[in-house]
Design brief:
Bound molecules: iron/sulfur cluster
Number of helices of chain A: 13
Helix content of chain A: 40-55%
Distance between the termini of chain A: 30 Å
Distance between the termini of chain B: 68 Å
Shape of chain B: globular
Largest sheet of chain A: 4 strands, parallel
Strand content of chain B: 5-15%
Number of domains of chain A: 2
CATH class of one domain in chain B: Alpha Beta
Helix content of chain B: 40-55%
Strand content of chain A: 5-15%
Oligomer: heterodimer
Chain lengths: ~260, ~475
């Protein structure tokens, strides 16, 4: 991997794996580690992490959210950076943790400090580590869905595209309506499956219309939702987390596909 | 208006299989969204204007009593009268009193969401007064006997054939074989029917986009000019508005007007921007003999000082609806009350109670598009979450949701047990799903699997693999 400029020292990065990557698709975690190490980071994975707390937060359960947030704050103290292969979970820590502790000055300071150090994976690589190229190859036409929180809370938009542009053999075909929600929405897809399913259908139709053979995005929830819909429709579009393609680890089958 | 918000899920199920509605909603993406973006891109200071507009309204809300009193003084000086109404009922009574005072038989109405909020039409009819909607969209839905489905485009759920149908049924004095295919023909027909009604009306009721404290003026914006005829021709003009429509000066109104039409329809300005100040003066060529402002609170002052205060900055531009993927899927009627979409999801619970409207702030993916386009920078998702918090505190959320959440949170707070549980789940789901890579059906996840496959996990959690690697 070519680096435009190395940060002063190789920073110590804590990887926040996210509950969905941990449970559903560990390859994304390993891909993230490879990308970070190639960029010159020393990566550690704190053992006590579980989830960022969004299911509780978005259900109005502030007490459990605060408890979970407190343990995340503690688990990731001391790292130069905390990197997350999800715009949604990174957004939770970056945008919402500080707001949870407005009445607890000591935790607030720690939460703000954590928020400052926390980044979504592709934006960390581009904006902080100044990575310009990844040394990966992928043969195919991909399209990219911008997941909502990453896009609107953290302004992740050009960073993944920038890195994808350096993948040899890869053509990016932009997805019309890429900024429109896919209908996942965390607990929303369980509470309002009818609406969620319709939104996923619209998204799947847009994806198929691009003619791309691969769909990428930076959030597992959205990816599972879109893959599930595409596959129910019998589409052969392959669905992967963007980190897998950037790191060149595409030996695991695409999301929802059986082992060859 | 009777709320059907409790039946939100049933409303949704109906809406998503209604082909006419889905076709009409499909037009929104290319209409409102594209036009707004083009208008915004042409105005370099748009983002600054949003800050200014937010600050203007915040200032008003912090000093509401001061500006309300000033507004009333100025209205009175101009020869008008302000009616302070705490509730929908008081507002209806005030309007009835004005109508009775001039012996009104018919009332023309410009588009007003507040009139919907207080269910004015039904009330007037019961009292023997005929209300006539003069905005084309409102006129169409009045003929069909249904509420608006959008705050600025009330008939957006309809297609042309629905309009032809409604006109055929209502305008029986016209030749049944008249050509009606061209939209202009429909427009002309509505004009022809409405013209004599404008002339005959005794009272004209309009809403207000702004109330200006320094002059006691009110402003409405329309594209059809129906508002002007509604307010100029009858004996009395009633402006029906809620408190938060107030701004200190004309200058302030002008600032917000630059955002309003651009955010709403992508126009730089609406076709008509009409200012009314008091009744007809001796040297005026026309105008009403009486000018009334019916000022409605209806629970709004209770929001002041709470986490929902920012909602009172809303100027009803509809940008949040027009960009909402949920609204675009289910349409306005599914929300079950006057205000649909993201603004309704926040406002409706403040007006009819969260017990009645709990679905609305929950039926959002928090995609944040509404907030990103709201000209008044209202943090809509944050306030929907506040409603969920209030529900949770008061144990109003469904027991199944609470139980599931408690179960999950218990594990999420205990990393070691969490690892055991997720490790087991990943192995089981991975084992049975491996052959196909996904599930077509899963217990407890039928909502998902009814329309989607559920991907099988890889088999071992990241954390267990990581631990093995680090030990190796
Ligand atoms: S909430 Fe904002 S975007 Fe929605 S109608 Fe009100 S002002 Fe417009």
């Amino acid at each position: 991997m070519a680096l435009a400029q190395m940060p002063a020292a190789s920073p110590r990065v804590g990887l926040f794996v996210t509950c969905l990557v941990d449970l559903m698709r560990p390859s994304v975690g390993f891909a993230a580690i490879r990308l970070l190490e190639n960029a010159g980071c020393r990566v550690e994975v704190p053992e006590t992490q579980t989830c960022c707390g969004q299911p509780a937060y978005n259900s109005g359960d502030r007490r459990d959210t605060r408890d979970i947030a407190r343990s995340v704050v503690a688990a990731f103290a001391g790292y130069d950076y905390v990197v997350v292969p999800s715009g949604s979970c990174a957004g939770m820590i970056h945008e919402h943790y500080p707001a949870l502790f407005a009445d607890e000055p000591e935790t607030l300071a720690k939460a703000q400090d954590l928020a400052r150090r926390t980044h979504e994976l592709t934006s960390f690589l581009v904006d902080v580590m100044k990575v310009e190229r990844v040394g990966a190859a992928y043969s195919g036409t991909v399209t990219y869905h911008d997941s909502c929180s990453g896009l609107r809370e953290l302004k992740v938009k050009r960073q993944p595209r920038r890195l994808l542009a350096s993948v040899s053999g890869l053509t990016l075909k932009e997805l019309p309506g890429a900024e429109i929600c896919c209908g996942f929405g965390g607990t929303f897809c369980v509470k309002y499956p009818d609406i969620s399913e319709r939104m996923a259908t619209e998204k799947a139709d847009d994806i198929k219309a691009t003619g791309a053979d691969t769909l990428l995005a930076g959030d597992m929830g959205c990816l599972m939702n879109m893959a599930g819909k595409l596959q129910r429709q019998g589409s052969g579009v392959r669905v992967r987390h963007v980190a897998e393609v950037l790191a060149g680890v595409t030996d695991t089958p695409p999301i929802g596909e059986p082992k060859a | 208006m009777q709320s059907t918000t409790r039946a939100f899920k049933a409303n949704v199920r109906k809406a998503i299989v209604e082909p006419g509605l889905q076709k009409a909603l499909g037009m929104m993406k290319t209409g409102f969204q594209v036009r707004r973006l083009a208008a915004v891109e042409k105005l370099p200071e748009f983002e600054q204007l949003r800050d200014q507009a937010r600050d203007i309204k915040n200032h008003v809300l912090e000093n509401l009593d001061f500006y309300l009193e000033r507004f009333e003084r100025k209205v009175t000086e101009a020869g008008g009268k302000v009616h302070w109404c705490r509730s929908a009922e008081e507002a209806r009574e005030a309007i009835l009193g004005i109508c009775r005072g001039v012996g009104a038989k018919t009332v023309t109405k410009g588009k007003s969401m507040i009139a919907e909020e207080i269910a004015l039409n039904d009330f007037l009819e019961e009292e023997g007064i005929e209300p006539i909607e003069t905005d084309l969209g409102e006129y169409i839905i009045q003929l069909r006997g249904e509420p608006p489905s959008h705050i600025i485009a009330p008939a957006i759920h309809l297609n042309k054939t629905d309009v032809i149908d409604a006109f055929q049924k209502a305008h029986t004095h016209l030749d049944p074989n008249r050509p009606m295919e061209e939209p202009t023909a429909l427009l002309e027909e509505a004009r022809g029917v409405l013209r004599p009604k404008f002339l005959a009306a005794d009272v004209g009721i309009t809403g207000a986009n702004f109330m200006i404290a320094e002059t006691g003026s009110t402003i409405i914006v329309t594209n059809e000019g129906n508002g002007d005829l509604t307010q100029i021709l009858p004996k009395a003009h009633v402006v029906l508005a809620s408190l938060e429509k107030l701004v200190p000066t004309f200058e302030d109104a002008a600032t917000i007007l630059r955002l309003l039409a651009r955010s709403a329809t992508g126009q730089e300005f609406s076709v008509y921007t009409t200012v009314s100040t008091g009744p007809r003066r001796p040297d005026d060529l026309d105008g009403p003999a009486e000018f009334h402002v019916v000022l409605l609170d209806n629970g709004r002052s209770d929001i002041l000082g709470t986490e929902f205060q920012d909602m009172l900055r809303c100027i009803r531009c509809s940008a949040c609806l027009n960009h909402c993927p949920v609204y675009a899927t289910v349409g306005g009627h599914a929300y079950g009350w006057v205000y649909p979409g993201p603004m309704g999801a926040v406002l409706t619970p403040t007006l009819i109670g969260i017990e009645e409207s709990g679905h609305l702030p929950n039926a959002s993916t928090f995609c944040g598009r509404c907030e990103s386009v709201c000209p008044m920078r209202i943090p809509l998702p944050k306030m929907m979450r506040h409603w969920r918090e209030r529900e949770f505190e008061r144990h109003l959320s469904p027991p199944s949701v609470r139980a599931g959440l408690a179960f999950w949170a218990w594990f999420a707070k205990r990393p070691r047990l969490y690892r055991l549980a997720t490790g087991l789940a990943a192995r089981l789901l991975g084992l049975f799903g491996r052959a196909h890579g996904r599930y077509g059906w899963l217990p407890l996840a039928s909502g998902w699997t009814r329309g989607r496959e559920f991907p099988a996990p890889e088999g071992q959690t990241f954390m267990s693999q990581w631990r093995k690697r680090s030990r190796a």
